[in-house]
Amino acid sequence: MSDKQKRLVEAICMLFPNAETRHCIRHMHANFKKVGFRTKKLKDLLWKAARASTTREFEDAMDELRKTNQHAYDWLKEKNPTHWSRSHSSIRSHFDMLVNNLSESFNKMILEARGKPILTMIETIMTKIMLLIVKKKEEADKWKGMLCPKIKKNVDINIKDSLRCVPSHAGRDKYQVEYGLCSQYVVDLVENSCSYRN
């Protein structure tokens, strides 16, 4: 995931030709604002399209954007959705992050080391990572249960949401799952996939 630095993306694509590239939506939104699309409504529609897990949800968000501001729609339509929307990304990577906060945090952590000679830089980064691992281990020792609190909360929400799902066996390892009144999705237990993509 990049902040759309063209040379960085080109270098990654050359080194890893099969790697998926994604763009940070926070940086994309900054560019969106630079060209004049500054309203909260347009920001919300950009994020709605980015968060969409199905192509139908994506198209609905884009259609709403087109009705709100044709120029903003045209600007966004020029961007390849495989780089910025969950609905068009491959499920092969099992990666659904829309922002590069993790890289930004890591870069901030190693800021003091970046100007040092290579061996000193590596030792400084190694020490910082080691101390971080120890700190996280101490925090994890305080948890109750096997999952960290944030993941436990997400699992509990998914369990609660799953009560509204009605599965029907569709043959072999596939199930049709009805969610609500008008939503039906295919779950394949062998492929480990769901047509809802979420």
From TrEMBL:
Output the PANTHER family linked to this UniProt entry. Answer: MUTATOR TRANSPOSASE MUDRA PROTEIN, POLYPROTEIN, PUTATIVE-RELATED
Q: What is this protein called?
A: MULE transposase domain-containing protein
Q: What species is this protein from?
A: Gossypium arboreum (Tree cotton)
